[in-house]
Amino acid sequence: MTRSTHITAEENESATLTVAASATRVFTVLANPATHSAIDGTGWVQEPADPAPLTEVGQIFRMDMYHPKHPDGDYRVANKVEVLDSPRAIGWLTGTEKADGRLEFGGWIWRYDLTPLGPSETEVTLSYDWSAVPPSVREYIQFPPFGPEHLVNSLRHLAELAEGAS
User: Fold this and answer.
1) Is the whole-model pTM more than 0.85?
2) What is the 3-state secondary structure (H, E, C) of 35-74?
3) Tell me, what's the pLDDT at 6?
4) Angle between helices 23-30 and 149-164 in degrees, nearest 10
5) Which candidate, 42, 108, 99, 33, places its Cα nearest to that of 70?
6) b/e for 104-114, b at 16 or more Cβ within 10 A?
7) Which residues, other chains included, contact 145 with Cβ-Cβ below 8 Å and sequence gap of 6+?
8) How far, in Å, CA of 30 to CA of 57, rounded?
9) Where are the alpha helices (H) located in 5-146, listed in sequence order?
10) What average pLDDT score do residues 28-35 get?
11) Taking a C-beta distance cutoff of 8 angstroms, is the pair 50, 61 a contact?
């Protein structure tokens, strides 16, 4: 793991880190919901309710979460894969599943862009974009809902997983 950078735009944050693993290996870690709790830099992500690997745009995967300020503490999110270009990019929208099974997405997206720098080195950029969050959601969630160190911490955790399994 080498150089890291962090950039904040008006409604988008990103961080970049060079990982000592192939892009294919990094992508495999990201496409596995079972690794997401270990990657998370906040500790909010718990376990996948849908542990199947991410394989197609439109795929829904649910994650169990915990946040001390959430009304229930424990809750579940539904994520919809928006970008899947193995091994170059993967991203998903986060939302909720209503009691009637209807999915509603909050307008924020997580995206990882991978640039191979060689056979065993990849530059990874993690972006969190909340520009599409409607005013009704912004009334009760502050964006971004985490500190600036979160994205860099997540990339470091990703690097540990990818490098450890290379």
Assistant:
1) yes
2) HHHHHCCCCCEEEECCCCCCCCCCCEEEEEEECCCCCCCE
3) 53
4) 110
5) 42
6) ebbbbbbbbbb
7) none
8) 14
9) 23-30, 36-39, 135-138
10) 95
11) yes
